[in-house]
Amino acid sequence: MAFLTGQIVAGLLVGAFYAMIALGYSMVYGIMRLINFAHGDLYMVGAFLGFSLFGIAGASSGNSMLMSAGIMVLVMCLVGLLGVAIERVAYRPLRRAPLLSVMITALGMSLILENGVLVTPGWGSLYLVFPASLSSRSLTLLGYQLTLGQLELAIIAVVLMAALYLFVQTTMTGKAMRAIAIDKDASALMGINVDVVIAITFFMGAALAGIAGVLGGMYYGQINYLMGFDLGLKAFTAAVLGGIGNIPGAVLGGFLLGVLESIGGGYLGSEWASVFSFSILILLLVVRPTGILGEKLGARM
Amino acid sequence: MNALEVSGLTVRYGPVVAVDGLSLVAPSHSMVALLGANGAGKTSTLRAISALERGRSGTLRLYGEDVTRLKAHELVARGLVHVPERRRVFSTMTVRENLELGGYRYYRQSSELRRQFEATLDLFPRLRERLTQTAGMLSGGEQQMLAIGRALMSKPKVLMLDEPSLGLGPQIIQTIYKTLQAISAQGTTVLLVEQNAHLALRVASHVYVLRAGHLVAEGPPSEFSQEATLAQAYLGSDET
């Protein structure tokens, strides 16, 4: 039983990463019917920016909480702006183009980000050791032993996701996002500047991926220019599992995938973790193609 | 003064010309109807005026000002508001949210928003009872009320409506047309697109008839009711 609880807690932590990335996939899909394959790479770029910023700040000596928070906010802004730039340069000109053109463009954007990081001096192809880490002080919560860092990670993820949900549900910009997801032309007729709201959506999704990247670097301790590919794939799976286009669905899918993978991996051996989670996905899609919370799948996908 | 002035409007979908060189004016405070059979280009005309169509040419003036190059959301801020065909309410959002989105241009002025919200609900009391329901749950007539109410939230100077009677029962059509006349009486200029000619001829002060993308007739409604056969020819068969 203790083993199972341990696997669930570990799964929830990995699931928090999946959920944070899945949100970006889901929001962009919801508003533009676009699978942004470059989204996982924004997580990777966030990790590398965090790597450099912690390096500049000399994190190894005084790892203060305030500085870590400052770096995370800065990375969120930078990656958010990168997301906006990608939308402006690569996706906006293709807004009325066939779906296939947009998907190829997204794949190309993913390659540009990965190889851009690969050739950047100081980043490169090897696994880099992340200069900062989460606190490893251990504490006991509900009878389960975990580190302070893990708890911090969980709190940051949950707070950000709750804030995003509240933003989308209650603010006028959030309502405009939901309106655009339903009907772009009708939204424009309400006086909504559709381009600006789409840019804000990209900013928020990318910022969330960016901070997840910094947290990922701190949690796993090492980063690599391809780290976004695997996580992006998993997060995409999570988004589909929960019902793509649906914000609570992305969070649910992320945590569910993390836990399933962890339990499956725990009992079958960790090399089977991905097999287990993708099998669950295939099974679920057979029974319920729209995902757990999904309503109607767009005609374009 | 002309509230709305469209000249030489042409709309193309690839090689197909949907509207060919249409010119029309809506004098301030008037109610102008644009009639025509299904496929005559009425909806394309409104969508082009609202800057939703890309393949369009011609000029558009709002109170004498050239607004041809403005985007759809900028036209709303200038007071040109369009109730689209088939209502297009945001079906999974609540009635309240739909109305709030209609008042999007006022979202930084909460007092203005509240005033418009109350005025709209006074005009459509049925919506007040349904504020927390999702728009998709409303009946067709209520959805049309919501679509019009949503447009009124932004205090339009010129209101364009695309077939507000579409798919509705006679009683609800009466209600909606009465409301339109009230809106018009309050000083809003109305451009009404209708397939149902009888309805439009009853309320409009001036009528344009469109066939296959061309303007084929215009004049006060009396001209058309007297020449029933002419109307028949231009408007297609009688469907009321």
Which key terms come to mind for this protein?
heterodimer, A: 301 residues, mainly alpha, ABC transporter involved in vitamin B12 uptake, BtuC, two-stranded antiparallel ribbon, 11 helices, 4 strands, globular, B: alpha/beta, Rossmann fold, 10 helices
Structural summary, described in words:
In chain A, 72% of the residues lie in helices and 4% in strands. By secondary structure, chain A is mainly alpha-helical. Chain A has one domain (2-287): ABC transporter involved in vitamin B12 uptake, BtuC, CATH 1.10.3470. In chain A, the strands form 2 sheets. In chain A, strands 1-4 form a two-stranded antiparallel sheet. In chain A, α9 (227-242) crosses α10. Chain A is globular and about 55 Å long. Residues 297-301 of chain A have low confidence and may be disordered. Chain B has 240 residues and is α/β, with parallel strands linked by helices. Chain B has a domain at 2-87 and 157-235: P-loop containing nucleotide triphosphate hydrolases (Rossmann fold), CATH 3.40.50. Chain B is 38% helix and 27% strand. Chain B is globular, with a radius of gyration of 17 Å. Chain B starts with a strand and ends in a 5-residue tail after the last helix.
Greatest interface: A-B, 19 and 28 residues
Report the total helices of chain A.
11
What kind of assembly state do the chains in view correspond to?
heterodimer
H/E element sequence of chain B: EEEHEEHEHHHHEHEHEEHH
Tell me, rounded to a whole number, the average pLDDT of chain A: 91
N-to-C order of helices and strands of chain A:
HHHHEEEHHHHEHHH
Layout of SSEs?
The complex is a heterodimer of chains A (301) and B (240).
Chain A: H1 2-32, H2 39-57, H3 65-91, H4 99-119, E1 128-129, E2 138-141, E3 144-147, H5 148-170, H6 172-182, H7 184-189, H8 194-220, E4 222-223, H9 227-242, H10 247-268, H11 273-287
Antiparallel strand pairs in A: 1-4, 2-3
Helix pairs in contact in A: 1-5, 1-8, 1-9, 1-10, 2-3, 2-4, 2-8, 2-9, 3-8, 5-6, 5-8, 6-8, 9-10, 10-11
Chain B: E1 2-13, E2 16-27, E3 31-35, H1 42-49, E4 56-62, E5 65-66, H2 72-77, E6 80-83, H3 95-102, H4 110-123, H5 125-128, H6 140-152, E7 158-162, H7 170-185, E8 189-194, H8 197-203, E9 206-211, E10 214-219, H9 221-226, H10 228-235
Parallel strand pairs in B: 3-8, 3-9, 6-7, 7-8
Antiparallel strand pairs in B: 1-2, 1-4, 4-5, 9-10
Helix pairs in contact in B: 3-6
